[in-house]
Amino acid sequence: MSENQNQATQGTPRRILDADLENWFTYHAPTGEQQSKYLLIRATALDFARILVNNTPAGPDQSAAIRQLRECVMTANQAIACAGPGVGQGATAGVGGATTGRSAGSGG
User: Fold this and answer.
1) How far is CA 44 from CA 1, 9, 10, in A?
2) Are residues 72 and 97 in the same domain?
3) Mean pLDDT across the chain, nearest whole number?
């Protein structure tokens, strides 16, 4: 097991590899299976967004809730798009728990 893999499995942030960066910042054309996952995630998020808007008062907290839901969809789509064998596994822990490299074609 490499040092980076060992650190990732122990919960210690690992160094972001060039392979991670290439994966995160490369367009990944969706496959049919990925496209159906994107559609399910977006449709479910839309339903929840409507629940939020219809059941919370307009204002900064409502805006924040919708913004965070949008971010959640983008991050989920990124997870689908960038899921490659052995690439980027465990790397998000090394970036403060969130990734910022969204793929242009990740469906979000």
Assistant:
1) 39, 31, 33
2) no
3) 79
In-domain check, residue 108? no
Asked whether the predicted pLDDT for residue 19 surpasses 50, the reply is yes
Question: One-letter amino acid identity for 34?
Answer: Q
Q: Are residues 35 and 68 in the same domain?
A: yes
CA–CA dist 77, 34 (Å, integer) = 9
Could you tell me the residue range of the domain that residue 47 belongs to? 30-81
Same domain (yes/no): 15, 53:
no
> Average pLDDT, stretch 28-52?
95
One-letter amino acid of 29: A
pLDDT of residue 94: 37
Confidence of residue 93 (pLDDT cuts 50, 70, 90): very low
Q: Are residues 22 and 35 in the same domain?
A: no
Q: How many domains does the chain have?
A: 2
- Cα separation, 67 vs 7, in Å, equals 32
